[in-house]
Here is the input.
Amino acid sequence: MKQSVNLVPESFRRSVVAQQLMRHWTVAGIVVGTVLSAYVFWERETYRQIFTRRAVMESKARPFSEMKDSTDRMVREIRKLEESDALVRRLSRDQTPLLPLALVSAGVKACPDQLWIKHVKFEQRAKIQPGTNGAKEPTASKPNEASDQETIGFMTLEGFAVDNLAVAAFVAALRDTKGFRSVELKSSINSDAQDLRRTSFTIESEL
Here is the structure.
């Protein structure tokens, strides 16, 4: 019977096996690295396309955004104008005393160092319209039904002047302002105080 003898050393066989495994792992590493590189490149390209599309969409939407901002600013300005207009209407309806006081100040300036105002009073009075027959039976008011009474504002001035001529000049100055429906001298009383003669007056003006 023929016997065979293995003349290859065990260390050589192990080195051959190690080289084969090294080649296998090198090929596997190259394949895995290539796949990972391709994946990373694909992800970067995908993100780049997404960012590019987003930039394009933002550039296309910018005019609409600017238009929206302009519209919002216009709406705010319109609201401010509406609030200002409402304030003007309310002040006109409530008959603010600023204008009558300014007219009174102008009238006082027409009589420098001759007339002084010590009291001003504003009030609302119901004025019955012509054609109504006194008291009426109380009835339930209907919506949008015109009232028989008109509310009118009055301003009462009390003060004193050096004489009746100064009072007359002041009343004439108030009438000349054309800012009152009527100006009426209710009372004018001459008196002496601390050896000084003066004239106390009361003037009522319809606003």
Notes: The longest strand covers residues 115-128. The two ends are 146 Å apart (CA to CA). Confidence is low (pLDDT under 50) at residues 134-147.
